[in-house]
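Shape matters. As here.
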Amino acid sequence: MPCWVSSAMRVALVQMRSGTQMSENIADAERYIRQAAADGAQFIATPETTHLVQKDADKLFETIRHPDDDPAIPAFAKLARELGITLLIGSLALRDGERRAVNRSHLFGTDGQLLAAYDKAHMFDVGLGQGEVYSESTHYQAGDRAVLADIPGARLGLTICYDVRFAYLYRRLAQAGVQIIAVPAAFTRPTGKAHWEILLRARAIETGSYILAPAQGGLHEDGRKTWGHSMIIGPWGEIIARLDHDEPGILVADIDPGKVETARTRIPALHHDREISGP
């Protein structure tokens, strides 16, 4: 396992309000990524479903492409190389069959090469009341593996949105040595208001990790409403930076991955697993 030297790194989160036009969403993301890079960010992350928010299944499958044909992947790879940044595209909706899709994160290195890809593991199949029902598993194939990657200055773990409710995934990533865990999301307003900050801070505290959570926010073109409030949280559970709204924009902060070891030494819970019988 690499031994990281304590040093600050500047990170940025892009908050978006993606619509139903892929080309427009890619252009919006690029504009914010360039702004974040101009502010000195070395690592930049965008939210879940960066290049398309479309809740109508028929229109979704009319629009999404197979990974080999998707326009966003080469566009963002080129952008990462041009700007010399590590770029996490929080997720893209990609075709995986006639009526099947995957919700996939893409991590690009400073040379534009794909460092890692992660498919969202936990499907948002819930009924929130008042007619607000989601059934991601109807059209999306769940991922089946945890993914981490070494980036300049740190080791990064990948998760997406609803994954944040499954603490075992975050514990597994932390025990594998990640110092930063990304949580790109498109949280609903009811769950965002009630649980977003609490869940993110809990995952940071439990794992002694930095949590970077870029979000979708606002009323989208397809009628979906998301919470926004992108957040950067430290390994002691402290809020380092946040957006207190759902408007598009960027959030920039300096973090020190070396502080992860300090937090984990103070409370070494990652080493205290026990086998418990029952119930």
